[in-house]
Amino acid sequence: MDTRPLLGFLILLCCLRVLSGSFSFVKNQDEIIVNEDYSIMEIIQCRMCHLQFPGENCSRGRGICMATTDEACTVGRMFKKDGTPWLTFMGCLKNCANVENIKWSIYLVSFRCCRSYDMCNENL
Fold first, then answer.
1. pLDDT at position 49, please?
2. Using a CB cutoff of 8 Å and minimum separation of 24, what contacts does 51-56 make?
3. What gap in Å lies between CA 5 and CA 7, rounded to an integer?
4. Which of 15, 25, 35, 81 is most exposed by smallest CB count within 10 Å?
5. How far apart are CA 79 and CA 16, in angstroms?
6. Which helix H or strand E contains 72, and what residues bound it?
7. Which of 108, 51, 111 is nearest to 83 (CA)?
8. Mean pLDDT of the chain
């Protein structure tokens, strides 16, 4: 089977999606990328913040990152040994895993991962 018509059709769909997305105000649109081997890869958007202290807004690295199929949106939280929140960070992470209370010096670190929808790490 000749894959050129299929590739042309996928490119046309992507172009139409880009044009329709530029005039639309719909939040949480999925994005699709076609790889060199013609496989389709879905990406999602994740909230990004490198440093956020309790009770404050993001102080460093605020933005949005794109998580590809081998990545996930993540939220990392650091707590003092007594359970007091100390620092939160968010972003895209490759090979992400949910973990609870990893000991790191005088802190406990927890990670939460998600891929269910755009900006899913805002409410983890």
1. 97
2. 51/87, 51/89, 52/87, 52/88, 52/89, 52/90, 53/86, 53/87, 53/88, 54/85, 54/86, 54/88
3. 5
4. 25
5. 46
6. strand 71-80
7. 108
8. 78
Please report the pLDDT score of residue 40 as a whole number: 62
pLDDT of 60-77, one tens digit each?
999 999 999 899 999 999
Burial of 90 (0-12, 13-18, 19+ CB in 10 A): buried
Residue 38 confidence (pLDDT): 56
* Euclidean distance between the first and the last CA atom of the chain, given in angstroms as a whole number: 45
- Contact at 8 Å (CB) between 51 and 89? yes
- Are 47 and 66 contacting, i.e. CB atoms less than 8 angstroms apart? no
Query: Are the C-beta atoms of 74 and 112 separated by less than 8 Å?
Result: yes
Please name the fold of domain 4-123: CD59 (2.10.60)
Reported confidence tier of residue 113, pLDDT bands at 50, 70, 90: very high
The tokens for 90 are: 């968010």
